[in-house]
Design brief:
CATH architecture of the largest domain: 3-Layer(aba) Sandwich
Shape: globular
Strand order of the largest sheet: 1-4-3-2-5-6
Order of helices and strands: EHEHEHHEHHHEHEHHHEEE
Bound molecules: pantoyl adenylate
Helix content: 25-40%
Structural class: alpha/beta
Number of strands: 9
Radius of gyration: 19 Å
Strand content: 15-25%
Distance between the termini: 40 Å
């Protein structure tokens, strides 16, 4: 596996490869776990060459504390990437990416940026759009892989390539979970043992909501979830929303099995100081 820290060196290598080989790309912020690796394995199956980037992007953090506490495990990451057969890893510095102007570009993603995460994380999707656009320009992959774990992010990236007219196929990958159902996340390692023990409650509630949504309308299911969390001693609900997958607008009615538009339940929960998100197609 080749490791590159500068755009120039990476592009020199990619220029040669691009003539004959398809390039799959998986952008990450490191602290890799099996969720990330599942994306890389899929990219590996579908492309000749796999590029992974590791870059903790400062402009997508709305809280400085969150950025400062973001886990950095570069040696372990490189080992995992090697084992899973990654060909190229790009680990740029902040200066390499942003020069001296560490600012986001402002994007209009047609409204999906204002729903759910957009309401609670100011400027987050401008930061994500800025870094992914920059990485796409640098790597110019044929296909890029994103997890459904961050479903709103996945939809934003699909919109980004459309707006910027980038010839890149965006592939969404299913959520990889712990045995007890907790969605894998770099943040899980920061949970206290008590919070880690109760965290699978989030996925259990999502599954129960799915069952209930079969017969009850979405607002009723939402109220039921809110009541469940009010009673929970350790987990604090930030939001639970049933929304359309395409425009991410809140859906309040009953499930229509004939409709082409699917709904998904989205949830954000505080387990102590750690914010966890998850979602499930209904
Ligand atoms: P990061 O949180 O490191 O995630 C990198 C990719 O892994 C994202 O596409 C994310 O959705 C996916 N992922 C994380 N946990 C997953 C899980 N349990 N199952 C499946 N996929 C999972 O998301 C980011 O970084 C950044 O915002 C980034 C896109 C790199 C831009 O900075």
């Amino acid at each position: 596996m080749n490791v590159y820290k500068t755009v120039t060196n990476l592009q020199q290598e990619l220029k040669k490869l691009r003539q004959k080989k398809s390039i799959g790309f998986v952008p990450t912020m490191g602290a890799l776990h099996k969720g990330h690796l599942s994306l890389i394995k899929q990219a590996k199956n579908e492309n000749d060459v796999v590029v992974v980037s590791i870059f903790v992007n400062p402009t997508q953090f709305d809280k400085k504390e969150d950025l400062d506490n973001y886990p950095i495990t570069l040696d372990a990451d490189k080992k995992l990437l090697d084992e899973v057969g990654c060909d190229i890893v790009f680990i740029p510095s902040v200066k390499e990416i942003y020069s001296t102007n560490i600012k986001s570009q402002h994007f209009d993603f047609g409204g999906i940026e204002h729903e759910m995460e957009g309401k609670f994380r100011d400027g987050h999707f401008d930061g994500v759009g800025t870094i992914v656009k920059r990485l796409f320009e640098i790597v110019q992959p044929d296909t890029a892989y994103f997890g459904e774990k961050d479903f709103q992010q996945l939809q934003i990236i699909k919109k980004l390539v459309e707006i910027e007219q980038m010839p890149i196929k965006i592939v969404g990958c299913t959520i990889f979970r712990e045995k007890d159902g907790l969605a894998m996340s770099s943040r899980n390692a920061r949970l206290t043992p008590e919070h880690r023990e109760v965290a699978p409650f989030i996925y259990k509630i999502l599954k129960k909501s799915k069952k209930k949504f079969g017969t009850k309308n979405a607002s009723k299911v939402t109220k039921w979830v809110e009541k469940k969390f009010k009673k929970h001693p350790l987990l604090k609900l930030e939001y639970f929303t049933i929304a359309n997958e395409d425009n991410l607008k809140t859906f309040e009615g009953k499930k229509d099995p004939k409709s082409k538009i699917k709904q998904r339940a989205f949830i954000a929960v505080f387990a102590g100081k750690i914010r966890l998100i998850d979602n499930l197609q209904l």
